Amino acid sequence: MLINTSSTSDSTTIIDTSQFEKTGESAVHQWLPGGHHVQLEIDQIIHERQFDGMDFSRPFDQTNAVLRVEDEDFHVHTFLLSLVSRYFRILFNGPFSESSDLTTPIELKEVSSCSFRNLLNCIYAYPNGFRITRGNISELLELSHYYDCERVTVLCENNLLYNLCHNIRSTQKMEWAIQYDLNNLKNQLLRQEPHLVELLALN
Q1: Are strands 12-16 and 72-76 parallel, antiparallel or unpaired?
Q2: Which residues belong to any copy of the BTB domain (predicted)?
Q3: Domain that holds residue 72
Q4: pTM confidence score
Q5: Within 13 Å and on the Cβ side, how many CA atoms surround 71?
């Protein structure tokens, strides 16, 4: 992918980001001729170009249940979702009507189909086929908390601990750490930036 970036001179600088697309890295902090600095935030663009997502719209690999979100059907494996999520373990195996007939789509409310697709892709395809980015980590944290999916929560926390999601403010990280009980992240932030203890006092 080529990005045209103009400076104050008549020339136009073309930055080739193909090397970053291959490695999955973000192209940030590029210096243009003449000392002009530009920060290219293309992490989400790279993610969208590289990974269209798994196709949950039809059965695959002996899926045995269908979840319906906003009129969109997702074919899933009850064993896998029950393994990673307490919510789905109860849904598929508990004493509820939904668990009695898995041939009928089970409707999930209060979630968008796009966000739910990201959650499923994180469960099924991370890290080889799915990346946690600055553009999707907030919804992944929210949904992993809602569906009690500890594995996804841990994956998100690790991405924040090791700065795999670029350009996220420390205050935002601390807010997530407090909201979703990310204790390892919270302790790391307090060691690195003690002033963030002020956010703890507000909660």
Answers
A1: unpaired
A2: 63-124
A3: 65-168
A4: 0.74
A5: 0
